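sorry for the late reply, my laptop died twice this morning and i had to redo everyting from scratch. anyway the thing you sent over, i finally got around to it. pasting the sequence first so we're on the same page, its 122 residues, then the predicted structure underneath. double check i copied it right bc i was rushing
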Amino acid sequence: MPRPVHFEIPADDPERAGKFYEDVFGWQISKWDGPEDYWLIKSGDKEQPGIDGGIARKNDMLSSVTNTIDVPDVDQFTDKIKSKGGTVLMPKMAVPEVGWMAYCKDTEGNIFGLMQMDPTAK
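ok and here's the structure:
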């Protein structure tokens, strides 16, 4: 069964937001060494329940906290989402050396991500 595996926090100033979450919760924030401005959040030890996340610059699509759901096949799930009345906002794209991602909207207007893990994605 697909489960949430990641969250994203939108921010006008990602460095300021990262400092806030470090100071309040003790989370470890580090800038991702990738093609996008993105900051990774380690929210706790792997042995503790919970998920890690990221901070991204706020934009039209990412304007509220967004959960990402692990799926075995992004294409299969985007087709299923469309057939059930949802919308694909950003089609499948590679996150280099991580996997395949898409952003969707449910029937109530909530945005969420899909992630198909694949370290060969480019």
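The beta strands are 4-11, 28-31, 38-42, 52-57, 66-70, 87-95, 99-105, 111-117.
thats about all i looked at so far, will dig more tmrw
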